[in-house]
TrEMBL record:
Gene3D superfamilies, sorted: Glutaredoxin
PANTHER family for this protein: THIOREDOXIN, THIOREDOXIN-1-RELATED
Domain Thioredoxin: 1-103
Signal peptide (from-to): none
The name this protein goes by in its record: Thioredoxin family protein
InterPro entries in the record: Thioredoxin-like_sf, Thioredoxin_domain, Thioredoxin_H-type-like
Pfam families: Thioredoxin
Domain of life: Bacteria
Length: 107
């Protein structure tokens, strides 16, 4: 699924069905730029995961509602619920988050 760049509200995120990856960062952030190719590579293997890149800054509501303090921060959600959250992840951590988010569980 292609990346979205319009920032949704927290209420919209909480109502989103299925797997969703929120990527919080800033265009000038070196850590964010370094993560981009690794994240793109992993996302290419998960075409059904919705990916929203959020340009974050001090005082931005969506980032604060998820407790973002470092960039990049990835928030892995399924059906509006946080499965995992990680700051400055490496490739292995991203893969773990994707697997946890896309795992189908019998309830």
């Amino acid at each position: 699924m292609p990346m979205e760049s319009t920032e949704p509200t927290r209420e919209e995120i909480d109502r989103t069905p299925g797997p969703l990856l929120l990527e919080f960062g800033a265009s000038w952030c070196g850590h964010c730029q370094a993560l981009a190719p690794q994240l793109a590579e992993v996302l290419a293997t998960y075409p059904d995961v919705r990916h929203i890149k959020v340009e974050d800054a001090s005082g931005r509501r969506l980032g604060r509602s998820f407790g973002v303090t470092l960039w990049p921060t990835l928030v892995f959600l399924r059906d509006g619920r946080i499965v995992q959250k990680m700051a400055r992840p490496d490739r292995e951590e991203i893969l773990e988050g994707m697997a946890a988010m896309t795992e189908i569980k019998d309830e």
